[in-house]
């Protein structure tokens, strides 16, 4: 932040034109609701939630320009005008040549994984993401984490915790052989690390290394503008570069991208796969008709594609991104002032509570983050999400739980939805739970589905 900006308050760069009432049910009702939901915040009904910080995915408020765009939906089965607008926006702002629309991010992950990964391959990446890793595994690959060690330490204040450890990456390539590495998976603003950015300096080195071995880079660009904002703030030489140019430069260092447009790009549904390689693009275009829809809509309505094209433009506006990440920083700083242990530095899309440190009396088998998320809901109706041992799932070979170092509860902020007053209420509730932390007892599994278990598992008190 520049010094003149620090002196003055900032306000959201929009005014509110339409409102959606929220309601808070009583503590007794919340206790009942969480028990009925098997202590899983994903299983709560949204009508029982007061402030919903479960996710920033598809939960943002669209602008009046996006809603106006919705009225221009060309709902033709083939060749919708809105697809061409979307394609143009992706080519202009991200620089990728070819676009395959999908219903959301995991649709794109499915296609790229099936097309590029063979049985026995290894896919290095800067920390796993649940759906991305699962699609890599379902295609026969094994994900290998090559993020820097600092990313696994919530206290470490490295400014670019999503950086790739180049030695880890090169060692893997040497050990397994470049022909068993179909691509390197690089996420911007790494979700599971706490919304942490990768630097352009590091990405350029990853590019050099992968060029040496002729390995492509596939970019999970779900929160690329948020990553660009941190580059502008923290990476020498980028202070005066417009966000849109930083975004473009990031994308130019990669060969293709999967996008969950429900985040950065400010829509409630949508995604795409973007590719530079024409051959691969043709294969992806053929596959999308099997799983998503025709190659000019891929599961989205025409109006959704129009809203997305406009959302991409808005996502790289300086005022927007500064306020978006600024609101997350505001909540994070409040919690730090209150002495609550959170992941540092504060991330781009949410504040991540360090459940391991908040509930040190619970072992990982007592599911501290799941327990903390349930306790927070009971305190105030604030809905958050577990990001720890439950999210990490089981090792496919041994059947044992994966035990990640990070045991976190994510307070994820939807874009343009809540005000600073909501953030104050959230902070006070976290503080209240933190003060009573010693009374909180753990949980155990009651029901566990096979895939992405955190969405649908049920738990009971131990
Ligand atoms: C970093 C990241 N990648 C991929 C995805 C998958 O996207 P979607 O939820 O749109 O399928 C998400 C969210 O789920 C995400 O946060
Ligand atoms: N990508 C969304 C939705 C989601 C949540 C958890 C997941 O593990 C997968 C998907 C998010 O990060 O909030």
Automatic annotation (TrEMBL):
Keywords, in A-Z order: Lyase, Pyridoxal phosphate
Single GO biological process annotation from the record: tyrosine metabolic process
All copies of domain Aromatic amino acid beta-eliminating lyase/threonine aldolase, residue ranges: 52-428
GO function term, MF aspect, one: tyrosine phenol-lyase activity
Modification sites for N6-(pyridoxal phosphate)lysine: 263
Protein family per UniProt: Belongs to the beta-eliminating lyase family.
Protein name: Tyrosine phenol-lyase
Source lineage: Bacteria, Pseudomonadati, Balneolota, Balneolia, Balneolales
Tree of life domain: Bacteria
Organism: Halalkalibaculum roseum
E.C. number(s) listed in UniProt: 4.1.99.2
């Amino acid at each position: 932040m520049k010094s003149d900006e620090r002196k003055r308050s900032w306000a959201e760069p929009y005014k509110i034109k339409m409102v959606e009432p929220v309601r808070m049910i009583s503590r007794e009702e919340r206790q009942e609701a969480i028990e009925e939901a098997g202590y899983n915040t994903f299983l709560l009904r949204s009508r029982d939630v007061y402030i919903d910080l479960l996710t920033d995915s598809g939960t943002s408020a669209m602008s009046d320009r996006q809603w106006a765009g919705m009225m221009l939906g060309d709902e033709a089965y083939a060749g919708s005008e809105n697809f061409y607008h979307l394609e143009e926006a992706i080519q202009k702002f991200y620089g990728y040549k070819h676009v395959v629309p999908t219903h959301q991010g995991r649709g794109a992950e499915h296609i790229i994984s099936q097309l590029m990964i063979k049985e026995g391959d290894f896919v290095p990446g800067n920390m796993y993401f649940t759906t991305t890793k699962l699609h890599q595994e379902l295609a026969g690959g094994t994900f290998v984490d090559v993020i820097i060690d600092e990313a696994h330490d919530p206290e470490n204040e490295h400014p670019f915790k999503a950086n790739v450890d180049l030695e880890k990456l090169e060692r893997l390539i040497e050990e397994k052989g470049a022909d068993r590495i179909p691509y390197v998976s690089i996420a911007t603003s790494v979700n599971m690390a706490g919304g942490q950015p990768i630097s352009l300096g590091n990405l350029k080195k990853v590019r050099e290394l992968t060029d040496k071995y002729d390995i492509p880079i596939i970019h999970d660009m779900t929160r690329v503008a948020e990553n660009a904002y941190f580059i502008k703030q923290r990476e020498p030489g980028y202070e005066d570069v417009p966000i849109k140019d930083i975004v473009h430069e990031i994308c130019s260092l990669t060969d293709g991208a999967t996008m969950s447009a429900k985040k950065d790009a400010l829509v409630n549904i949508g995604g795409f796969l973007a590719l530079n390689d024409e051959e691969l693009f043709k294969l992806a275009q053929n596959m999308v008709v099997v799983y998503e829809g025709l190659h000019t809509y891929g599961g989205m309505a025409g109006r959704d594609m129009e809203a997305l094209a406009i959302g991409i433009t808005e996502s790289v506006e300086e005022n927007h991104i500064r306020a978006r990440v600024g609101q997350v920083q505001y909540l994070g700083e409040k919690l730090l002032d209150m002495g609550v242990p959170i992941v540092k530095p504060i991330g781009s899309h949410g504040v991540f509570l360090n459940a391991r440190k908040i509930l040190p009396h619970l072992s990982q088998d007592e599911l501290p983050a799941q327990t903390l998320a349930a306790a927070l809901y009971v305190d105030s109706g604030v809905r958050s999400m577990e990001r720890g041992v439950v999210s990490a799932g089981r090792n496919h070979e041994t059947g044992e739980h994966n035990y990640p170092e990070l045991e976190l509860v994510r307070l994820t902020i939807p874009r343009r939805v809540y005000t600073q007053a909501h953030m104050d209420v959230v902070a006070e509730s976290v503080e209240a739970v933190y003060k009573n932390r010693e009374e909180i007892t753990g949980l155990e599994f009651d029901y566990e589905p096979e895939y992405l278990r955190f969405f649908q598992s049920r738990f009971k008190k131990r």
